[in-house]
Specification:
13 helices, mainly alpha, A middle domain of Talin 1
């Protein structure tokens, strides 16, 4: 059964990513939106649904470490593994607005999150601030980031763009990514149990990577289709969504206790690799293959460090 789960999961992930990228790219053209905006909003929110569900369920059941660890671990995997592998396959280009608006905003929201963690609790007050900032950022994206090279949308343009069809493509792609991620994680966990791997190691590796599989497949497919803005926007937007939206809602249900391990190392490591990503992309306005290789190597070292310390 675990083999069937893995095959079905990978199948759903591939076609889910394919349809999400195709549909969202067409929607961007139809409404005169830059593709980076679609990547930062629709695509990022869709691929971050697994993290949202895991963190929400963990908060409800009182598993604070899982709830907050899932967000930090996913953000690390998104930059180091997802963006790293994407860059290895096909260098990822970045627009000027991404360099001077989106990436600095991600660094700012990461710093704000770290500041809120200093007292060992993420409270409802903290989450409301994050949520308000996130909503303001999304409104700014939609209003001010129009693509002036595309004609203003009218009824004929919307009809030509087959908005309903592309909307269904995008929704179907999101459903496929969520289903594929769940099936793949289940199959991999079952296989790991058969091989005698401990639950702790499974949680640190299989589950952490599993919740980032939608981002991985979407970014890789986008890069292969030369939709670099969607590819990069997906990673940046997913990390913003994880911190500002997920942690803007979950603590409203129940305050989250922050572990000292997270405060001492993981939060700062997340900030460090976010700044490293910025430095890499600023260099030539793209993430090159060797930079992608560095990111993937850092993720491997990070996982090995976790395993070594816990063993």
């Amino acid at each position: 059964m675990y083999i069937l789960y893995l095959i079905a999961g990978l199948f759903c992930l591939y076609y889910g990513a394919e349809y999400l990228v195709r549909g969202s790219s067409a929607i961007a053209y139809t409404f005169g939106m830059k593709k980076i905006v679609v990547g930062l909003t629709v695509v990022a929110m869709g691929t971050s649904m697994p993290e949202f569900v895991v963190s929400l369920n963990s908060a409800i059941t009182g598993a604070d470490s899982v709830s907050i660890g899932n967000i930090v671990g996913s953000n690390l995997a998104n930059i180091l593994l997802v963006l790293g592998l994407t860059g290895l396959i096909n260098p990822v280009s970045a627009q000027k607005s991404t360099l001077f608006i989106d990436i600095p905003f991600l660094i700012f929201i990461t710093l704000l999150f770290i500041f809120f963690c200093f007292d060992g609790m993420l409270t409802a007050g903290d989450s409301i601030i994050l949520l308000i900032i996130f909503i303001g950022y999304m409104v700014y994206q939609i209003i001010n980031r129009k693509d002036k090279t595309i004609p203003e949308p009218d009824s004929d343009n919307i009809e030509k763009g087959h908005f309903l069809k592309n909307g269904l493509f995008s929704i179907g792609g999101i459903v496929g990514l969520i289903l594929g991620g769940n099936l793949t994680v289940k199959g991999a966990v079952d296989l790991a149990h058969i091989l005698g791997v401990s639950d702790l190691i499974i949680g640190l590796t299989v589950v952490a990577v599993g919740t980032s599989l939608p981002e991985l497949f979407t970014s890789v497919i986008a890069a292969l289709r030369h939709e670099h803005e969607i590819s990069l926007g997906n990673v940046i937007g997913s990390n913003l969504f994880n911190i500002a939206f997920v942690l803007g809602l979950v603590p409203l249900i129940s305050p989250i206790e922050i572990s000292q391990e997270l405060i001492r190392f993981d939060n700062w490591f997340m900030l460090g690799i976010t700044i490293l990503m910025a430095v890499f992309v600023f260099h030539k306005r793209q993430l090159t293959r060797w930079q992608g290789a560095v990111l993937v190597l850092l993720y491997g070292l990070y996982v090995m460090n976790l395993i070594f310390n816990l063993i």
